[in-house]
Write a structure and sequence with these properties.
single chain; globular; about 75% helix; two-stranded antiparallel sheet
């Protein structure tokens, strides 16, 4: 791997400084006011997310490229998993947490698709413009049909949740099994030389032994931080909203996901700015796969462990609307990729529709926007009906067939 050795690791030092106050408070059994706790623990969760992302990126030097990309996507949203699990666990004994348990999940999914996907294309367009080139679409490889196929099937299955009226435990286990199958599948991809930037590049420039020890230490430190800070962060978020008179659901659905998804936003935009937009988009697709499978699958497990019914996490009327809207938006997003191309008009449409559904968030707005997403998805599925079978078969096809484009 060729690198231009960065001059320093200041971002890493800044991230370590960001987690230190929260660890001191937690290990000393200290107590903070809700607003202070929100700031201290929120910064720690965000800083730990960056540390995890850097460590996961550098790990691509030692493991399969496809598996590393999936791990990067999984680890980048670990804070979201922790917060969601916290709400689902407490929902087992406190019904007021039931709605919050799905709020972070649906908000993060819609934020990732409605904002992060367009950001990658716009960043690629900006980078190309500075170099005097023209970029209107992001072209994907035949190999990406595997991720697209996994995501398409998960999106279709997700429409069953509002009908079931809960995230049933058996349903969650099926989704988790689908994610494990996905990880096994991508682990078989050929290793590729990673495209490292910034702090990840600085870590990778160390000797092999130092690099591996550093990555392991970063994984441990960041994971411990997440486990210690996720609960007080979520609790501070709810208490702050109560004190300020802000709707708890709104805070949990949009503020917390924005913090947990920020590292991934930064990474994929930087990749696009450096001319590697396809890798950035692939990472986002992988994130959608693990959010739509493993993340949802863990919620009824956490709910049962917290004292709730093992039959599953119940969905109220508002939660059904949110899940239905999220599934519809996700279906539209994956339908845009059936031709292995992310078009500029698709990015603009995703961003515009996200802005509308973000502002128009009552029941009528949810159902109208769901209908719009579904109508657009069906139009694209009909347009690409000849490509659709090969996408649906990709998760089960041999790696060589997927990479060569064989249907």
């Amino acid at each position: 791997m060729q690198t231009t050795r960065p001059r320093h690791g200041l971002p890493l030092l800044a991230a370590v400084a960001g987690i230190t106050p929260a660890l001191i408070v937690r290990l000393s059994s200290g107590h903070l006011a809700p607003e202070a706790g929100l700031a201290v623990f929120g910064v720690a969760v965000l800083a730990a997310s960056f540390i995890l992302t850097w460590a996961a990126e550098v790990s691509q030097l030692d493991i399969s490229g496809g598996l590393a990309l999936a791990l990067v996507a999984l680890i980048a949203v670990l804070p979201e998993y922790a917060v969601d699990a916290y709400f689902a666990f407490h929902a087992g004994t406190d019904p007021s947490y039931v709605g919050l348990a799905t709020a972070n999940m649906t908000g993060a999914n819609r934020l990732l698709l409605g904002v992060a996907w367009p950001m990658v294309l716009f960043a690629a367009w900006w980078a190309a413009r500075r170099e005097g080139r023209r970029v209107s679409d992001i072209e994907l490889e035949h190999d990406n049909r595997t991720e697209i196929g996994f995501l398409l099937i998960a999106c279709i299955v997700a429409f069953a949740l509002p009908v079931l009226g809960s995230i049933a435990t058996w349903f969650g286990l099926l989704l988790a099994a689908w994610f494990i199958f996905y990880m096994v599948k991508v682990a078989r991809k050929e290793p590729e030389e990673p495209h490292l930037i910034g702090t990840a590049e600085w870590i990778a420039a160390r000797s092999t032994a130092v690099r591996r020890r550093t990555v392991l230490a970063l994984f441990i430190a960041a994971t411990v931080t997440i486990l210690l800070c996720a609960e007080p962060f979520a609790h501070s978020l709810v208490d702050t909203g109560t004190d300020l008179g802000i709707d708890k659901f709104f805070l949990v659905q949009w503020v917390a996901p924005f913090a947990s998804e920020a590292p991934e936003f930064v990474i994929v935009v930087l990749l696009a700015l450096r001319g590697n937009a396809p890798s950035g988009l692939s990472a986002l697709v992988s994130s959608k796969v693990n959010q739509w499978t493993l993340l949802i699958g863990t919620l009824p497990i956490a709910y049962g462990l917290g004292g709730g019914s093992w039959s599953g996490l119940p969905l109220g009327a508002r939660q059904k609307e949110e899940v239905l809207l999220t599934a519809a938006q996700s279906l539209f997003g994956v339908a845009l990729l059936l031709q292995l191309r992310f078009p500029r008009w698709g990015a603009l449409t995703l961003l515009g529709l996200f802005a509308v559904q973000f502002a128009w968030h009552d029941t009528t707005g949810h159902y109208v926007m769901t209908a719009v997403y579904v109508a657009l998805s069906l139009a694209l599925l009909v347009r690409d009906r000849r490509t659709l079978p090969s996408i649906l078969r990709a998760p089960f096809a041999r790696r060589d067939d997927v990479a060569s484009g064989v249907s």
